[in-house]
Specification:
The chain has about 550 residues and is of the alpha/beta class. Helix content is about 45%, strand content about 10%. Helix 14 crosses helix 17. The termini are far apart. The structure holds glutamic acid. Glutamic acid binds next to loops.
Length: about 550
């Protein structure tokens, strides 16, 4: 068989040689040990946690080694393309601090190894497909859908492995003339790889996360070029990651199954394969069954990255959480280096677990609290404002109009050894401080049952009469103690606990009446500070409002 003629016959338009592309994309000039990684998402418009999780690994490996992390858009599946998806992706990842050194950008692309959209690389792929055909390693296959369906049915019936292999690879050895005739008749074809693999033999590879992996060889004549002249994922991966000089392929474990195909293709091309890093799928504990399961797009809103944006999770907190689940020693490192930049953590693939990774929003929330407790009031304010501008313009307006006041609000119990850990994400933070705004104030808790309605009215009345904004914190509280004891409440909770029958309640119950009147809540940060920020007029207005509501 004259494979060169066959190659010319099916690809007359392909003029470039493989060497041309090799020269066009030379080895990268990088320091020893520098890693080149890439994120290869499909532009489906849905950005999920897995994308960020993978991107963070890519980014850490490249940045820490002085390498390159690039973005390649894998858009060979035209059906899945969604308009604006690339910008959504760039923007979504940018929020979490993932910036690519090279690849597709918002309006074009940067870097010497492009084009970075697979749909624009058809000429490149075809050169290499033609090369394989000319070497007798690939062939045109004209089988129709019906024929393939028929083969599948036969295989099922006879309990054979399904797919196009061995005797089922019917067009493997078509003669030149037949190919010519079919092409002249306008028949469409795909190009299949001619597999020499045997399921009885094993291939093995050292995965940077999983260690040594051994799997049976691939015996299927897989499609490498589709009818639309675009490659399948398998072929595009091999050609792109070779020519773009990727050193580490970080991708989900769902690709493990096709690893033998990829290794076989690299070998057929005469190229060294990159280091594979197959990461874990993210799991959660199902609320209903209590069992571990994969996060699902349909059931779990927390799988979408948009979820964290809308609620306003702090990017650093999400990154730190992901590092916690990525590397088993991150938390330990964090404790030993509480003030270090998380990017200084020596990230490594070897420390990643190779069995399902559990994603846990509670843990994320705990980390958020720790991270936010260390931010200044100014940082919290700016973060809150930018979130509100994107998602809650009305709240943004209030925050802007009350800048000075909000800075003081966010500063309550901040700093020091034991800062309060009340803040988790932007929406919750606004909610937490919302009582400062009349527009959002609502009474959420009930007055203590120890105090009768008449007593509450009396407490609020006396409190207002004796209130002096100039009082320091202890003078202020002393006045509340006086009101309490004058009205038959213990001035100290301890006294009440000792002799409950002697009192109606204690000073805590009295001060809680005031707290609820002012904030609508029975739990709040330091009330004296809150009042100082609110100002006397607002304090009185709240007291009047509460008294009115009691009538
Ligand atoms: N386009 C593939 C995906 O979205 C990328 C896999 C890879 O990184 O190689 O799953």
């Amino acid at each position: 068989m004259d494979y060169k003629r066959l190659a010319e016959l099916i690809f007359p338009e392909v003029k470039e040689s493989a060497e041309h592309w090799e020269r066009r994309y030379p080895e990268r000039n990088l320091p020893e040990g520098a890693k080149v990684t890439r994120l290869g998402p499909s532009p489906t418009g849905y950005i999920h946690l897995g994308n960020l999780y993978g991107a963070l690994i890519d980014e850490r490996l490249a940045k820490q080694s002085g390498g390159v992390c690039f973005l390649r858009i894998e858009d060979t599946d035209e059906k899945r393309e969604v308009e604006g998806a690339v910008n959504m992706l760039l923007e979504g990842l940018d929020y979490f601090g993932i910036h690519f050194d090279e690849g597709v950008t918002a309006d074009s692309e940067i870097g010497d190894y492009g084009p970075y959209r697979q749909s624009e690389r058809s000429a490149i792929y075809k050169t290499f497909v033609k090369k394989l055909v000319s070497e007798g390693k690939a062939y045109p296959c004209f089988m129709s859908e019906e024929e393939i369906t028929e083969i599948r049915a036969y295989q099922e019936e006879n309990k054979l492995n399904s797919g196009v292999y061995g005797e089922f690879a019917r067009h493997r050895n078509l003669g030149l003339e037949e190919v010519e005739t079919r092409i002249a008749a306008g028949e469409e074809f795909v190009v299949r790889f001619k597999s020499e693999g045997d399921l009885k033999n094993y291939v093995s590879v050292d995965d940077a996360i999983r260690g040594k992996i051994s799997m049976p060889e691939n015996d299927q004549d897989i499609v490498i070029l589709k009818k639309n002249d675009l490659p399948t994922y398998h072929f595009a991966h091999v050609v792109d990651d070779h020519l773009m000089r990727t050193t580490h392929v970080v991708r989900g474990e769902e690709w493990l199954g096709s690893l033998p195909v990829h290794l076989q293709l690299f070998e057929a091309m005469g190229w060294e394969h990159p280091i594979y890093c197959h990461n874990n799928v993210l799991m959660k504990i199902d609320e209903e069954t209590g069992a571990r399961r994969k996060l699902s797009k349909r059931k779990d809103p927390e799988l979408g990255l948009g979820y964290y944006r809308e609620l306003g999770y702090y990017p650093q907190a999400v990154r730190e959480y992901l590092l916690t689940i990525l590397n088993s020693d991150y938390e330990e490192w964090r404790m030993a280096n509480p003030d270090a930049d998380p990017d200084d953590f020596p990230f490594s693939c070897e420390k990643m677990s190779s069995s399902g990774t559990l994603f846990d929003v509670e843990k994320l929330n705990d980390i958020s609290k720790d991270v936010l407790a260390k931010k200044s009031a100014e940082e919290i304010y700016e973060f809150e404002l930018s979130w509100a501008k994107d998602y809650e313009p009305e709240k943004a307006r209030l925050l802007e109009e009350n800048r000075e006041k909000m800075l003081r609000v966010f500063d309550i119990d901040r700093g020091g050894d034991k800062p309060r850990k009340d803040f988790i994400y932007a929406q919750q933070i606004f909610e937490f401080v919302s009582y400062f705004f009349d527009e959002y104030f609502k009474v959420e808790d009930e007055f203590p049952s120890e105090c009768s309605k008449e007593d509450i009215e009396e407490i609020l009345k006396r409190y207002k009469e004796t209130y002096d904004e100039a009082d320091g914190s202890s003078e202020w509280f002393a006045k509340i103690r006086t009101i309490a004891s004058d009205m038959g409440y213990a001035a100290k909770p301890r006294d009440y606990k000792k002799n409950p029958e002697e009192y109606k309640g204690h000073v805590g119950h009295v001060s809680n009446c005031i707290r609820i009147a002012l904030t609508g809540r029975s739990v709040s940060p330091d009330l004296w500070t809150i009042q100082q920020i609110m100002g006397k007029d607002a304090v009185f207005a709240r007291l009047d409002r509460a008294a009115e509501a009691l009538k």
